[in-house]
């Protein structure tokens, strides 16, 4: 046989195999440092390196030299705007987790929301311990450069999870809105509904009317701000306005004596050190709960924080280093847990307001912190008459904003599977618990990944008329089968997880093609061309699979031909002697060249030793 | 701009999107019925369908009509050969699991081996319950067509696991060989060694010498049979010979009075029903252990049985239906647990002997079962004087055959990662326990899959001289960069798990290319061509990623071009308006055509509105 009288235009290159340690090193680098964090240090003199390193750890050195008065004006305005949103929200969220309201002034909404649902002990020490562990966990992830773990929480999972958590929190607010005193500690829909409707005689209409009015007001301002983005501050100021209006109303109508509960006494002063509470938390029987809560809230807060950070980074064309971000958030939480703060992240609503308010740098955060501090020091007595129902309205209004039904619709339109993941996370949280929702969503997402690995697709390729291009017949109906050949494209790396599936699938393609040819009376099958363009790598199970395919085709009198085997694959096939086995002359750089050679063989060597239809099936009865 | 004066040769097809239910159905079919089990029923008359269905469930109908006397002769010989191997092995394995020796006559070696190491209670009822659950679990997997779960135990895992288990069992046999009475119940290397060397004064030299002699004899016959496959029966007969020799020796030398322990009394008769013991097992406090043991042994037995079945099926060109096989094995175990048998599978050594002995059909199994039955009924008293040390030698000899160091070397040579998986499984079993070994190996294997999904490779393509072929510059050093263009190949589907990595990696390629061009003074970068040939599918996170890449390139004044987007991808890109966004004229069927058009644009429209180097970086200080 051979191909002496036919010139094959290109040869498949077999690159020399790299030493193990070298390829391990480059693999590790790509896995843990994909963003090349030290790029700016390359080819720099030592003094410059030192400066850059200092800037890396103390970012203020990076932007301070370029800071102007114009920037400061923008930062001042945005800082105050944020503070006016943060103070009432902080108090509301703390009351949500049944913690002293003052604790909430430094917090965002995600962690208390999760904590409210998970912590079986509504205890300050446990909350602080959970924060501590969340911080440790987050910082550890960052230090170990395992930021990519967060990527496994897909956007769809987060949308469903957040909507579910928001629904649960809204349901919890029925307590405040209806002025109920007793309420279930369970968080699932069924228990809450049973609790609400089992005590209809306890509902307070004064509280309900007040709550609905404020809720309407808040939603209206939100709607208005959405229509006209220039008036974003109306939305940002609405919670503070509600708190003031509500407090004034209660003060003048003595409503606290008619079933409208108020906050009452708030301790004045800055947040005290809380190491003693933390120590208490370590000794408490709720330590495992605290650790679990910490790890879960930590991951979710990270996933949300980083996703939000990224979307704003994209707008402004700066770069976010996920791992660095994690270390920062983690450190913040460890420090926070020692100073009476609980879990913090960059919550979306505030970041969005900050963005709209035109913040220019971290100075806006300093302004905000100062404003909050002043409130803590001097203004806390003003919150004495703030009705709880207003806080409930603020929470519900914020939570409704988290139910991103548009994103869910978008998922349904684009990708049904993502929609299913999203809905499972939602249903898991609403009908079960936070953990159930999270586990279900991550499990389904991973299952999808594993299924796509275990069941890669294979396509029959055909010739696009008047070209040497070969494409899937499914996608390009104009493509024609090549007589006497079956061209198969394997759409994934070949692993232990899919090797036996692929073996079966390839056999099935072969006998289906043989059946088809027999019925239609076309040229009988002589060549099976495997297009390996998409096979990025192969393991030992994959090599055995190819060896078995070779045996199968040999037994059926067919010739196996490989097209475009890639670097990693060809190295291993060469080492395992498969290249020798198949014959290096049966590997081509493109499908087109493989087909051309096969056609040549088919027409010139028809009567010679070329593999013919000496196929006989059942030679065994077992 | 547009491409009015340049004729693009081929258009990317956007196939109509299939209805959701239809694509779901085909997806499910491909996942659960990849082997098309009902193929032979297609296009057949009803009577033929009925016959085929009957044959499917009662395989004897398939081969009986073609059975001849020649076949029977082969089956008879192979059946007797197998029985002579099975009887001593069965007794040995049962003694290994501390069960009545008679129980072992129907069993294979894998399950008692695992059971010996896991069962904390050496109790018949628990063993039977474990068998029952293994059967239920196996049959359930088969019925649910989840056979592919077994694929996730890679060949490397099984090699390491079996070698580890064999090592542990060999260590346990030190008890028999050294004639020890007390022995540790732990299975890890450290505990066993401590137990053996803490009682050196108890070692019995008579027992040791006898054991070593028989071991030497068994290994010698194995070596001989391996050299000359025609004498396979020497190896098959060796255990029986050893048992007879050993018994005769003990009988005439009264060695049982000199520290050589013997089997003693064996109950005669067929295996009795054991439903009462099974009921006992269900009530026992070891029920969870039994369930755990059952599930683990079930999976391993299946993985081994199916792998072995497949390798022989390949030799003989028949087809194994993994799911059908599972149902059969599972049913066998459920039935076995009710009749005093424990876990059964198709053990490799016996299948291999069967194959070498020339078995033709299931009749050889019937012959073997008859031979074993006759032994049970009439020959059990003959085993009274069989020394335990001979059984230990038989076990060690069989176990040494399971340590497939050649396979491990092969793994090391071909794929370092597979070797690491194999060694972890081995070390986990030897130094920890069965569960630890299994969990570690499967976790590492899955981690590898997930890592390869989370960190797909990207390549820069270059032009192979004198062709329109574009290939990775890494693999083909002759390939040349195209001036003004960066051609990137993405090597995997784009998912939530890798979307943010890919975004970062693509940005990095772009700025690295810009840096390179700046230094070398070549044509500045104008086009980024993404070769999507290997992107089989995309989810909503992936679409967002592409949208962000588009924004990044726009901001840098670069044009984004797609080459060969595939069916699934183009459908979703079309639905999400990304095609509109990028402009359908910027999608090409091949990289070659994309490059040709870009080259045309680059040289004819240089001074017009073509994207030029109006790139300005830092427009923000954040």
Question: Any descriptors?
Answer:
homodimer; 622 residues; mainly alpha; Transcription Regulator spoIIAA; 2 domains; 4% strand; disordered C terminus
The computed structural class of chain A is: mainly alpha
Q: Which outline of chain A best applies?
A: elongated
Beta-strand percentage of chain A? under 5%
Q: Determine Rg of chain A (CA atoms, Å).
A: 33 Å
Binned, the helix content of chain A reads 55-70%
- Main sheet characteristics of chain A: 6 strands, mixed
| Mean pLDDT over the full residue set of chain A | 75
| Biggest interface and residues each | A-B, 97 and 97 residues
Number of domains of chain A: 2
Low-confidence stretches of chain A: 1-6, 108-122, 345-350, 607-622
Task: Compute the separation of the termini of chain A in Å.
Answer: 35 Å
Strand order of the largest sheet of chain A: 2-1-3-4-5-6
* Count of DSSP strands of chain A: 6
Q: If helices are DSSP runs of H or I spanning 4 or more residues, what is the number of helices of chain A?
A: 25
């Amino acid at each position: 046989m051979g191909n002496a009288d036919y010139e094959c235009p290109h040869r498949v290159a077999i690159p020399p195999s790299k030493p193990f340690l070298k390829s391990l090193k480059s693999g590790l680098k790509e896995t843990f440092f994909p963003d090349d964090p030290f790029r700016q240090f390359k080819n720099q003199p030592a003094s410059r390196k030192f400066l850059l390193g200092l800037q890396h750890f103390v970012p203020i050195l990076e932007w301070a030299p370029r800071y102007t008065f114009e920037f400061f004006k923008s930062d001042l305005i945005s800082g105050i705007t944020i503070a006016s949103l943060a103070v009432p929200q902080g108090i509301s969220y703390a009351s949500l987790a049944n913690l002293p309201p003052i604790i909430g002034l430094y917090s965002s909404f995600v962690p208390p929301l999760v904590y409210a649902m998970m912590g079986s002990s509504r205890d300050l020490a446990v909350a602080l311990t959970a924060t501590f562990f969340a911080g440790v966990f987050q910082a550890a992830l960052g230090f170990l450069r395992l930021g990519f773990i967060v990527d496994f929480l897909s956007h769809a999972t987060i949308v469903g999870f957040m909507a579910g958590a928001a629904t649960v929190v809204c349901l919890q607010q029925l307590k405040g809105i209806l002025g109920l005193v007793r309420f279930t500690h369970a968080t699932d829909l069924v228990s809450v509904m049973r609790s609400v409707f089992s005590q209809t005689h306890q509902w307070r209409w004064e509280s309900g009317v007040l709550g609905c009015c404020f809720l309407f007001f808040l939603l209206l301002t939100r709607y208005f701000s959405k229509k006209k983005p220039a008036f974003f501050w109306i939305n940002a100021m609405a919670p503070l306005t509600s708190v003031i209006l509500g407090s004034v109303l209660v003060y003048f109508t003595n409503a606290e004596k008619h079933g409208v509960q108020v906050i009452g006494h708030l301790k004045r002063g800055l947040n005290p050190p809380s190491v003693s509470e933390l120590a208490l938390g370590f000794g408490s029987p709720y330590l495992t709960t605290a650790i679990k809560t910490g790890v879960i809230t930590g991951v979710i807060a990270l996933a949300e924080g980083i996703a939000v950070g990224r979307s704003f980074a994209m707008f402004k064309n700066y770069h976010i280093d996920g791992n660095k971000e994690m270390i920062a958030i983690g450190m913040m939480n460890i420090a926070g847990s020692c100073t009476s703060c609980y879990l913090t992240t960059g919550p979306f609503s505030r970041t969005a307001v900050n963005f709209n308010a035109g913040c220019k740098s971290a100075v806006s955060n300093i302004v905000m912190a100062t404003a909050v501090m002043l409130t803590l020091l001097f203004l806390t007595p003003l919150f004495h008459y703030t009705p709880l129902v207003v806080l409930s309205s603020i929470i519900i209004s914020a939570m409704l904003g988290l139910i991103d039904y548009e994103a869910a619709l978008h998922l349904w339109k684009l990708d049904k599977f993502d929609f299913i993941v999203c809905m499972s996370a939602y249903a898991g949280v609403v009908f079960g618990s936070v953990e159930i929702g999270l586990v279900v969503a991550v499990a389904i997402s991973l299952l999808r990944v594993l299924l796509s690995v275990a069941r890669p697709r294979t396509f029959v390729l055909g010739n696009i008329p008047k070209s040497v291009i070969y494409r899937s017949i499914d996608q390009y109906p104009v493509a024609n089968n090549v007589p006497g050949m079956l061209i198969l494209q394997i759409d994934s790396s070949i692993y232990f997880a899919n090797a036996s599936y692929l073996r079966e699938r390839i056999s099935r393609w072969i006998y289906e093609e043989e059946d088809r040819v027999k019925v239609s009376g076309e040229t009988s099958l002589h060549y099976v061309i495997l297009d390996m363009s998409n096979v990025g790598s192969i393991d030992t199970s994959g090599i055995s699979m190819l060896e078995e395919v070779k045996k199968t085709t040999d037994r059926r009198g067919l010739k196996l031909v490989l097209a475009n085997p890639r670097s990693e694959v060809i190295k291993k096939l060469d080492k395992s002697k498969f290249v020798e086995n198949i014959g290096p002359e049966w590997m081509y750089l493109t499908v087109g060249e493989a087909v051309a050679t096969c056609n040549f063989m088919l027409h010139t060597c028809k009567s010679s030793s070329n593999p013919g239809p000496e196929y006989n099936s059942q030679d065994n009865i077992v």
